[in-house]
C-alpha cells in the first residue's frame, strides 16, 4: 500500500489510504466465491446489520446482468444511490484482480456522490475457487462457500479458500439434507488456512450474519485506528 | 522511441478496462451479423476503416501534441451515439488511471484534472503514448489494433469461436491496419497546421445503432 503517497489532481493509484482532499477513504471489503454460495445474501444481511451504525455502500459485479444489484434494491437494504453495478465482460475475476479499473471508479464515485463512507462492500460475480481480489482494490476479502457445493471444497483449497482474510461456510442449515460433514469442513479449512479465521453460518438461524458483522467491525476499528 | 514501451502499452493485459467491452461485437452477434470467422473478419474490416480509422487519427494527433480539449470535442462530434460517447469516456478514464500509474507525466495530470470523469479514450491513449516516449505512429497503431482486437477477443467468448481462427483474422487484417495507421498519422500531421477538421470523420451507422440497442438490453455480457 502506498500510505504516504500524494498526488496532484484526481488520485491515480488505487490503494492510497487517503482521498485527493486528504480525508481517509472508506475501508473496502471484497466478497468472492462460487456461484450460488450466498454472497449477495451475505451482503444484504451485512447491510441490514451495519447500516444503522455505519455509512456504507455496495458495488456488485454481475456476470451478465444487474441481477445482484437489483436483488439488493428489491430487498431495500440500502438506498439505491448507495448501490453501484459494474459490468465485467464475461470475466468476473478479471474485474476484481487483473484489471480493477472499473471497480475502482465505482468505489471512488460512490465516495464522491454519497460519501463520506465508512465501508464499501465489493461483491464479485460468482466465479471459481481461484478468484481473489487485488490488494489494489480491497483492503480485506471474504470468501464465501456453502455446504451444498460439496463438503470437499475446503480440502481442495485454492487461493480463495486458503488465503482469504475470512472464509465463510454458508447454509449450514442445509448440511443434514445434502450429506455434508460440517466438522470435516471446519477441520479441512483449518488445515488449509492455519490461523486465518473461518465462520460457519446459516442466514436462516437467529445469529445470522452476526459473526461476519463482528469481523467487519473489527477490521474497521483497525482501519480507522 | 522505445519499442519495449510500445509492447507494454499495446499488451492486451494492460489494465485499462478494455476487457469488459466488445466494440459492438455483442450486438452484432445477437443480430446474427457475426456467426463465424468469416463474418468476424468482415465486421472487423468495417470497424477498422470507420471507427478505428477515426480513433487512430485522434490518438496520433494527441501524441503529436494537438490540444487534447479540442480533440475531445472533435471525438464527441464524430460519435453520434450517446452510448458510445459514454463508453469512450469511461474507457478514457480507466486508461488515464493506468497511464498515470505507469508513465507519470504532467500532461496526463492536466488532462485528468480537465476531465475528471474521463476524456475520450483515443485522446488519452495519444497522450499516454507521448508520456511513454512513443510517437504518433505508435499511438495510431495501438488505437487501430484495439479497434479490431477487442471484437475478436469478445467473439471468442460470445460464440465459442476457435481462438486460433480469431487470431488468424487479425493477422489477415494486418496489411490493411498498416495503411489505416499511416493514413491516421498523415491526417494528424495535417491537424497540427489545419486544426481538428483535418481529421477523418468516418462513422459506421450500424455500429452506432447497435450500440444504442445494446445499451438498452437488460441482460448482456459486455458493457458495450
Automatic annotation (TrEMBL), chain A:
Q: Taking every annotated instance into account, which residue ranges of this chain make up the domain CobW/HypB/UreG nucleotide-binding?
A: 29-199
CDD domains named among the record's database cross-references: UreG (cd05540)
InterPro entries annotated for this entry? Answer: CobW/HypB/UreG_nucleotide-bd (IPR003495), P-loop_NTPase (IPR027417), UreG (IPR004400)
- Major subcellular site: cytoplasm
**Keywords assigned by UniProt, alphabetized:** Chaperone, Cytoplasm, GTP-binding, Nickel insertion, Nucleotide-binding
Which residues does the record give as GTP binding sites?
A: 33-40
Q: Region Disordered: what ranges? A: 1-20
Residue runs in coiled coils: none
Q: Where in the cell is it found?
A: Cytoplasm
Briefly state the protein's biological role.
Facilitates the functional incorporation of the urease nickel metallocenter. This process requires GTP hydrolysis, probably effectuated by UreG.
Q: Subunit comment for this entry?
A: Homodimer. UreD, UreF and UreG form a complex that acts as a GTP-hydrolysis-dependent molecular chaperone, activating the urease apoprotein by helping to assemble the nickel containing metallocenter of UreC. The UreE protein probably delivers the nickel.
Similarity comment: family membership: Belongs to the SIMIBI class G3E GTPase family. UreG subfamily.
- HAMAP family assigned to the protein according to its UniProt record, in alphabetical order: UreG
The protein's name in its UniProt record? Urease accessory protein UreG
UniProtKB/TrEMBL annotation, chain B:
Task: Spell out the coiled coil positions from the record.
Answer: none
Asked if the keyword Glycoprotein belongs to this entry, the reply reads no
Q: What keywords were assigned to this record? A: Chaperone, Cytoplasm, Nickel insertion
Q: Name one Pfam family in it.
A: UreF
Question: Quaternary structure per UniProt?
Answer: UreD, UreF and UreG form a complex that acts as a GTP-hydrolysis-dependent molecular chaperone, activating the urease apoprotein by helping to assemble the nickel containing metallocenter of UreC. The UreE protein probably delivers the nickel.
Q: Which family does it belong to?
A: Belongs to the UreF family.
Q: Where in the cell is it found?
A: Cytoplasm
Protein name listed in UniProt: Urease accessory protein UreF
Q: Where mainly found?
A: cytoplasm
What is the gene name?
A: ureF
Q: Which organism is it from?
A: Streptomyces viridiviolaceus
Q: Which InterPro entries match?
A: UreF, UreF_sf
Top-level division of the source organism's lineage: Bacteria
Q: What does this protein do?
A: Required for maturation of urease via the functional incorporation of the urease nickel metallocenter.
Amino acid at each position: 500500500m502506498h500510505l504516504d503517497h500524494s498526488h496532484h489532481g484526481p488520485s491515480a493509484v488505487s490503494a492510497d489510504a487517503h482521498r485527493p482532499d486528504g480525508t481517509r477513504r472508506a475501508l473496502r471489503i471484497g466478497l468472492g466465491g462460487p456461484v450460488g454460495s450466498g454472497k449477495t445474501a451475505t451482503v444484504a444481511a451485512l447491510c441490514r446489520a451495519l447500516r444503522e451504525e455505519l455509512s456504507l455502500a455496495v458495488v456488485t459485479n454481475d456476470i451478465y446482468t444487474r441481477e445482484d444489484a437489483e436483488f439488493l434494491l428489491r430487498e431495500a437494504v440500502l438506498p439505491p444511490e448507495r448501490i453501484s453495478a459494474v459490468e465485467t465482460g464475461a470475466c468476473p475475476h478479471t474485474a476484481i484482480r487483473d484489471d480493477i479499473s472499473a471497480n475502482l471508479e465505482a468505489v471512488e464515485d460512490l465516495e464522491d456522490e454519497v460519501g463520506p463512507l465508512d465501508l464499501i462492500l465489493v461483491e464479485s460475480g460468482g466465479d471459481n475457487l481461484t478468484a481473489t481480489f487485488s490488494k489494489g482494490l480491497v483492503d480485506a476479502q471474504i470468501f464465501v462457500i456453502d455446504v451444498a457445493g460439496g463438503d470437499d471444497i475446503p480440502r481442495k483449497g485454492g487461493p480463495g479458500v486458503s488465503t482469504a482474510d475470512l472464509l465463510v461456510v454458508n447454509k449450514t442449515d442445509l448440511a443434514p439434507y445434502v450429506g455434508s460433514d460440517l466438522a470435516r469442513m471446519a477441520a479441512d479449512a483449518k488445515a488449509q488456512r492455519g490461523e486465518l479465521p473461518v465462520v460457519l453460518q446459516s442466514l436462516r438461524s437467529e445469529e445470522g450474519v452476526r459473526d461476519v458483522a463482528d469481523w467487519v467491525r473489527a477490521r474497521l476499528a483497525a482501519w480507522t485506528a | 522511441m522505445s519499442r519495449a514501451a510500445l509492447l507494454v502499452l499495446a499488451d492486451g493485459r494492460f489494465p485499462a478496462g478494455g476487457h469488459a467491452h466488445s466494440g459492438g461485437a455483442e450486438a452484432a452477434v445477437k443480430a446474427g451479423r457475426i456467426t463465424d470467422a468469416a463474418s468476424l473478419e468482415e465486421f472487423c474490416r468495417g470497424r477498422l476503416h470507420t471507427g478505428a480509422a477515426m480513433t487512430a487519427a485522434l490518438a496520433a494527433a494527441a501524441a503529436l501534441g494537438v490540444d487534447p480539449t479540442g480533440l475531445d470535442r472533435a471525438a464527441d462530434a464524430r460519435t453520434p451515439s450517446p452510448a458510445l460517447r459514454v463508453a469512450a469516456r469511461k474507457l478514457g478514464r480507466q486508461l488515464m488511471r493506468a497511464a498515470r500509474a505507469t508513465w507519470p507525466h504532467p500532461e496526463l495530470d492536466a488532462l485528468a484534472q480537465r476531465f475528471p470523469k474521463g476524456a475520450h479514450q483515443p485522446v488519452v491513449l495519444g497522450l499516454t503514448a507521448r508520456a511513454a516516449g512513443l510517437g504518433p505512429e505508435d499511438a495510431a497503431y495501438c488505437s487501430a489494433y484495439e479497434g479490431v482486437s477487442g471484437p475478436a477477443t469478445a467473439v471468442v467468448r460470445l460464440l465459442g469461436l476457435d481462438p486460433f481462427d480469431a487470431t488468424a483474422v487479425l493477422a489477415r487484417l494486418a496489411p490493411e491496419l498498416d495503411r489505416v495507421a499511416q493514413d491516421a498519422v498523415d491526417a494528424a500531421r495535417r491537424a497540427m497546421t489545419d486544426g481538428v477538421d483535418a481529421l477523418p470523420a468516418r462513422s459506421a451507422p450500424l455500429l452506432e445503432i447497435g450500440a444504442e440497442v445494446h445499451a438498452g438490453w437488460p441482460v448482456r455480457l459486455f458493457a458495450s
